[in-house]
Write a structure and sequence with these properties.
There is one protein chain. α2 (41-52) runs parallel beside α14 and α5 (145-154) packs parallel to α11 (443-452). Strands 7-6-5-4-8-1-9-10-2-11 form a ten-stranded mixed beta sheet, with helices on both faces. A four-stranded antiparallel beta sheet has the order 13-14-15-18, with helices on one face. The chain contains 16 helices and 18 strands. The chain has 642 residues and is of the alpha/beta class. Mean pLDDT is 83; it is low at 1-93.
């Protein structure tokens, strides 16, 4: 049976499920007004005991103890059908599916059309495609770019690799440790051609960190957190351009700077180059002998310090341009507003145009897949890397409302994002247009794709945290995930009460999410009068910190929180100080301490050491390398971490 070996060595999961998210769809328009389901003290006590059982390590103990708890086996999908696939589309008689991962950068909950209250028609194709696929309502990420991409590519929670909160910059001496086998490496072993486009941002100082050395046959994209959309200037390093092309041919890795693409809007580059790659591949190989895995990790809608974000006219349709006029008229007709809101709205118009360019890139991808005869045997997974950045003073803003907070935080607005999957030959017809309410995280992509590609995910590394979610997404089984470990302190000896820079806990078990030593933050609506805030009121402006250092202003407040994110997805009611939840809180803290102590490696210590080494090294080391390649960000021969 698939997964048997993997399940046997998986850390014990929660031994029960409460009413759980399966039973309540999250409706965007009524997110703030969901009824509170009753949750008795008996369940609280049972939950606390059950969580404490997570530290047990043998199957006999699990079997004897689980019998004391109710197990709810409701389906993670809102359909409980045994639907057949379309005639002739049974996967047992087909070649391996092509898998396309389409990742948007910083696209928040309120940015995608089917959720949005202000830009509902900015992504019409995504909106239509989601109606033909399955929408994921409890899809989670890490709160910023590098940690999110690390979890996607390794299938491991960020704390396992020391990348909980570190955003990798142009001159960093760090990268994902080489002991991690990444998603494209696994897919290549299953016989897939592997192509990557867009944002990498998980290591480049040593050429062994580059995409071609981590499993991609070909990669075209950039390395910094962001860059100019057309001039490709690395936003964190003025004067250096950022675009690289990277190949692996017969085990030989080659790369060059992306100077040939300078002056072209990057979404247009990826749109055109993916189309060429698809046509070339399927013309040469067909679909059966060499299925394709592609990661298209777009730059949009990232806005912080990125120049020239407005897309060229050719990336916008006539309908897009009409909708922009509608939005402009909406502002003119809505009366007098503050200067702050007027500025926000004008920047939000830019966001709308960038969303449109992404939407049309996805449309082009799907149409090209159909043109080469592969649509019925392809699975397209659309997600965002993390929550949106609503700060309109440093770039065009995304929006997460009514979820709380923003990118860089562990509130729902920072880590819960839009996602959906489309696969006309692999999703039962009656499941089309349905929603999956099971808990899912970036880490589950590796195991899910690996299984779809014919692999046994029990063969993956023992410390892979991902689960195969495909059967649950389709509605065939209940959701397999009951826990998310989003953040843990680096120290293996950490105990509750220690304040180590900005280190804290972000842990979800069942319906409950615990945040310890976390910055307080608000809600940021896109409409005046509904929790609209100016840029200087946002967490990122008040509390500039990373994982290793902390520097705050007087307005920065750290606190602890406990939320029932099923009944209170907007995280308005903090249960941390409620005596009814004392036992549950204590059990979750004990579990966090156990997880911290059980880390299998010292990466939480190693990554900061390499980070410090970079800070103390001469800038000439990377500057000389960049200059040698025309002032482009390139590898500069740092020591690779094993």
């Amino acid at each position: 049976q698939k997964g048997t070996k993997r399940d046997a060595r998986r850390p014990i999961q929660l031994l029960y499920q409460t009413q759980y998210m399966d039973e309540k769809p999250l409706l965007p328009k009524s997110l703030m007004d969901q009824e509170s389901s009753s949750f008795s003290r008996k369940w609280l006590i049972g939950g606390a005991i059950a969580i404490s059982l997570l530290v047990l390590s043998n199957k006999e103990s699990q079997a004897s103890l689980t019998s004391n708890f109710k197990v709810v086996t409701t389906n993670g999908n809102d359909l409980t059908t045994e639907d057949s696939l379309a005639p002739g589309d049974a996967t047992t008689s087909r070649s391996l599916p092509n898998i396309f991962l389409f990742t948007c950068d910083d696209m928040g909950w309120n940015d995608i059309g089917y959720n949005s209250d202000d830009l509902s028609e900015a992504t019409p194709f995504m909106k239509a495609l989601a109606k033909k696929g399955i929408t994921l309502t409890h899809y989670y990420t890490q709160p910023s770019c590098t940690p999110s991409r690390v979890t996607m590519m390794t299938g491991k929670f960020a704390y396992r690799n020391g990348f909980q909160n570190h955003e990798l910059l142009h001159n960093d001496y760090t990268g994902v440790p080489l002991s991690n086998k990444m998603m494209p490496e696994h897919m290549k072993e299953l016989g897939y051609a592997t192509l990557g486009f867009g944002k990498w941002n998980i290591g480049h100082c040593n050429s062994r960190y580059l995409p071609s050395a981590r499993g991609f046959d070909h990669f075209l994209g950039y390395l910094c957190p962001g860059h100019g959309y057309t001039d490709h200037n690395c936003g964190t390093a003025s004067g250096y351009r950022d675009m690289i092309e990277d190949w692996s041919v017969d085990g030989v890795h080659k790369w060059s700077n992306g100077a040939d693409y300078l002056g072209t809007y990057d979404t247009l580059i990826y749109k055109e180059e993916t189309q060429k790659a698809l046509r070339r591949h399927f013309s040469e190989y067909g679909g059966e002998s060499a299925p394709m895995f592609m990661w298209l990790a777009h730059h949009g809608i990232h806005g912080e310090y990125d120049s020239d974000p407005i897309p060229p006219s050719e990336l916008l349709s006539k309908e897009n341009k009409k909708y922009l006029k509608v939005l402009r008229k909406r502002l003119d007709q809505s009366g007098k507003h503050s200067d702050d809101y007027t500025k926000f709205f004008k920047m939000r118009m830019i966001t709308a145009s960038v969303l449109m360019s992404l939407d049309n890139s996805l449309k082009n991808l799907v149409e090209t897949i159909e043109d080469v005869g592969q649509l019925s045997n392809s699975i397209i997974f659309v997600n965002s890397d993390n929550g949106a950045d609503p700060d309109y003073t440093q770039g065009h803003p995304g929006n997460n409302f009514p979820l709380r907070s923003e990118k860089f935080s562990y509130y729902e607005g920072g880590v819960r994002v839009p996602a959906f999957v489309y696969g006309p030959g692999h999703i039962p017809i009656k499941s089309e247009g349905s929603t999956y309410h099971g808990m899912m995280h970036h880490v589950d992509l590796l195991t899910t794709f690996y299984s779809l590609g014919g692999g046994d995910y029990g063969d993956l590394d023992s410390d892979v945290d991902g689960m195969d979610q495909w059967a649950a997404i389709k509605g065939d089984t209940s959701s397999p995930r009951t826990e998310l470990v989003l953040n843990l302190p680096r120290s293996k000896t950490w105990k509750m009460g220690e304040q180590l820079t900005s280190e804290g806990i972000a842990l979800r078990i069942g319906n409950y999410k615990l945040l310890h030593n976390h910055v307080n933050d608000s809600w940021f609506s896109s409409e005046p009068g509904k929790n609209f805030h100016t840029g200087d009121e946002m967490m990122a402006a008040k509390c500039q910190y990373d994982f290793y250092t902390i520097s705050t202003t007087s307005g920065c407040v750290f606190d602890s929180y406990l939320f029932n994110v099923l009944d209170d997805p907007s995280e308005k009611t903090n249960l941390w100080y409620d005596s009814d939840y004392t036992d549950l809180k204590a059990s979750m803290i004990a579990h966090a301490e156990h997880l911290a102590a059980a880390q299998l490696n010292d990466y939480g210590k190693i990554i900061p050491e390499y980070y410090e080494r970079g800070l103390n090294s001469s800038a000439s080391i990377y500057e000389d390398a960049f200059e040698a390649y025309g002032d482009y960000v390139v590898p500069f021969a740092c020591e690779a971490i094993n």
